[in-house]
Amino acid sequence: MLISLSSVVFLASSAWALPLAQSCLDNGPSCFPLGSASFNGSLQPPNMTREEWWCPQSMTYGFLGFSYPMEGECYDDSFERINADLQSMKRDFGASMVRVYLPYCYTTYIWENLIRAAVANDMGVVAQVAWPLNGDPLEYWQKIAASILEIFTTSTYKDIAPYVFHSVEFGTEPIGDMDDGDNFINDLIDFKAAIKPYSIPVGISEDWDRPGIMRANETEGLGPVGEQILPQSDFVHAHVMPYYHGYNQSDAWSYIESQVWWYKNNTPVPTIISETQWAWELNVLHQGSKDIGTPQYVAFWETYDANCPFFKETNVGWFLHAWKWEAHSDMGSVGPASTTTNTPIIHIVHFRFYPSISREHRLSISQAFLALQYTCISPTTKKPYIRSFTGGLDISIENLQHGFSHIFMLEFENQEDRDWYVNDDPVHKQFGVKQLTGVVEDVMVMDFRRGEF
């Protein structure tokens, strides 16, 4: 089922608003997540089979949702943060699914939080096994795979997981990145076999426009690697990326259209465009087309939105890449509709205790400080507003601490929340007076926004 992006909220200022696109929304049957079926907020599995629960492939076309980078630490992916993001995706854009991208918390923590948030928002989840791109050991992909399997076998959410997880991508451009070399096909086969008892479809997320590798050197047909991958694929999650293939924006749609027909003709399995993007500004680490800028970025997504009948005809869904953190092709930083006051702020706090303060006293103060995440209340929403809060004891071996032994990291949704916390929040102020006076010799505080230098 296609839901038009319509006026596209991420460019919704009067200067950049897009015209309403024609809606291709159908009235779906009682199925999930494109029909009327709902979890109704319950973490108990629906009283039906997985096959009965999920909407058929014939309904899975057009805009489905967003690629959702999860490239931070585990504490970046709290339930509260994920839930807020999924709420926005569904409320502001009509997303029905979310595609996880590069999950770098190598435990079940993020999957459990995703399940809870997806249930709360009636959204399906495309999970992903990824080879790390952040400098972590490449073999950590095995930890991600194991954490996903653990969700289905021993976790608290094992019964409902098949009703939340739509599918699992085994790698994102694993062929282009040569993940695990010649062992990759066997890795894919083994993972697919391990998750088969839970009826979860498995495939790779990849750009198949690799002549002589994924596709034949001629226009039609598969290449030698494509011929090995396709029999192990329950679906194709395609990277259709005219930007990275050097096209001008005005020619992007002809490339997209030709690629969709190539997949339809050569990969006879359900197809979703899992990654497609344009850049509004040059980024030296993500160079592609030279035809970049905010107008091109807007026009690129307008074109996708305007061609909903094509995606319905071809029965192809697509995810917008990406929701956040992806340089100059994410949702959070484009155009006048976004200002620095509306982007998250990381607030770093260091404590240097007086030497006479005991370890037990330091621990109690640290615990009281962390508790502010739940006791500091927004004057507007009347709810806690610190998005995430973590901390710990310094373990550096560089001897550059200058006596600071405890470090804490808070994240605020925007500058307004940060300013309220620093200048006005009575709970925060009381903590400082009651807990820190005569105990902490010095405090060092620094704030930053990710990627702003």
TrEMBL record:
Any one Pfam family match given in the protein's UniProt record, by short name: Dabb
InterPro entries: Dabb (IPR013097), Dimeric_a/b-barrel (IPR011008), GH (IPR017853), HS1/DABB1-like (IPR044662)
Chain ranges passing through the membrane: none
Superkingdom: Eukaryota
Domain Stress-response A/B barrel, first and last residues per copy: 345-448
Keywords noted in UniProt: Signal
PROSITE patterns: S_R_A_B_BARREL
Signal peptide: 1-17
Record text on subunit structure and interactions: Homodimer.
Record PANTHER family: PTHR33178, STRESS-RESPONSE A_B BARREL DOMAIN-CONTAINING PROTEIN
Name of this chain's protein: Stress-response A/B barrel domain-containing protein
High-level lineage: Eukaryota, Fungi, Dikarya, Ascomycota, Pezizomycotina
